[in-house]
Amino acid sequence: MTWRSDYDNELAHVFREAERLIDAYPAPLNDKGRDYLQAFNPLNPSGTKNHICYLLPFWMQPITELDSRYYRDLSLANVFVMLYFFIQDDLMDTAPSDWKEQLALGNLFHLSMLDLYRALFESSSPFWDYYRAYVTDWSLSVAYESPHTSLSPAKLAQKAAPVKLASTGALLLAGRRELEPAVSDGVDLVLATLQMSDDWSDWEEDFELQNANSLIGMIASEKAASPSLMTRTDIRNAIYIDGALSRYTQVAQANGEAFARLELSLPHLAAFQSHLSDKLTEESQLLSDTKKKLLGGGFTYWISQNKSFD
User: Fold this and answer.
1) In sequence order, what are the residues at sequence separation of 6 or more whose Cβ sits closer than 8 angstroms to the Cβ of residue 166?
2) What is the pLDDT of residue 310?
3) What is the CA radius of gyration of the chain?
4) Under a CB-based contact definition with an 8 Å cutoff, are residues 81 and 112 in contact?
5) Which 3 state secondary structure label does DSSP give 82?
6) Given this model, what pLDDT does residue 247 score?
7) Residue 296 has what pLDDT?
8) Which end of the chain is flanked by fewer CB atoms within 10 Å, N or C?
9) Helix count (H) and strand count (E) of the chain?
10) Which segments of the chain have a pLDDT < 50?
11) Of the candidates 43, 37, 51, which has an alpha carbon nearest to the alpha carbon of residue 12?
12) Distances from the Cα of 248 to the Cαs of 70, 101, 238, in angstroms?
């Protein structure tokens, strides 16, 4: 079982359909929209991968058992969720020269998203209550991000709350609303681990831009210091000397253990959680091994890693 390649054919269909919908936008926003879509197409080798955004509907199959068209429709809707909210994030983080175009394009993505969901859920459906709740969570998270980022899964996952429209939507279509609390908790755990993985990869950029980052927040908390008063050297020392990444990784592993205790029959989602946690563990172990080698035979090991050949 592979959590992504099992669905390559489905994703090809979903992204072709997304491109067809974007092609119908008025010019020149359709061209810009197509380019933006391709930047996130997982089948594009250079595309940014945001797997859970469009794979979560398919991962829900074991407990929903819907007709395959519903998973495609939910995935397609979530592609536009991804595009819309990523544009919002981009505009909050920076002020690009084409911000007016991006804002306009974002509104077209939002219209496509709503059209797709309205075709699946009547106005009286509880889906729209969840929609309001998830968008409210996202709004509060991005508007009031704190440098003292909590490692609580529920808090870390708030910024990606609209992703859960896919899982909750599948449950409602299948008449399995009673599973929503447990599934929501499970998705939050995976989204939290995904955010932690991103924060490890991006900590230097986040430090430079003074963005919220859970790894920096954890280190600051351990030192009872304000993140804004910490230097890059403080953070690097905590990571590379004091073992902060190892402690950070243990939190990600705990998320996996908490997911297992929910006893959800969602093997692909569980595999994705394990993939994220295992990658953090591997990088933590690599840092630990490097540190041991440097301490055990520092100069010789340094020479072996840095020698050049003329």
Assistant:
1) 53, 56, 57, 60, 74, 75, 77, 78, 81
2) 38
3) 21
4) no
5) helix
6) 96
7) 62
8) C
9) 14, 0
10) 299, 303, 307-310
11) 43
12) 38, 39, 11
Phi, psi (rounded to 5 degrees) for 223: -95, 5
What pLDDT is stored for residue 255 in this prediction?
Answer: 98
Q: What is the pLDDT of residues 122-176, one digit of tens each?
A: 999 999 999 999 999 999 999 888 777 789 999 999 999 999 999 999 999 999 9
3-class DSSP state for residue 268? helix
Distance separating alpha carbons of residues 11 and 50, to the nearest angstrom: 12
SS3 of 307, please?
coil
Residue 53, C-beta contacts closer than 8 angstroms, at least 6 positions apart: 78, 79, 81, 82, 163, 166
pLDDT tens by residue, 273-309:
999 999 999 999 998 888 777 776 554 555 455 544 4
- What is the spatial distance between Cα 243 and Cα 292, in angstroms, rounded to a whole number? 12
Q: What DSSP character marks residue 6?
A: G
Show the tokens assigned to 189. Answer: 């755990």
List the structure tokens of 212.
Answer: 């919220």
Q: Which residues in 259-290 are b (16+ Cβ under 10 Å) and which e? A: beeeebebebbbbbbbbbbebbbeebeebeee
147, 220 Cβ separation under 8 angstroms: yes
> Can you tell me whether residue 97 is helix, strand or coil?
coil
Q: Return d(Cα 276, Cα 194) in angstroms, integer.
A: 7
Question: Cα–Cα distance between 85 and 78 in angstroms, integer?
Answer: 10
Paired tokens of 97? 């020269």
pTM metric for this prediction: 0.92
Q: Where are the alpha helices (DSSP H) in 67-163?
A: 68-93, 99-120, 127-143, 153-157
What are the tokens at 156? Answer: 């870390």
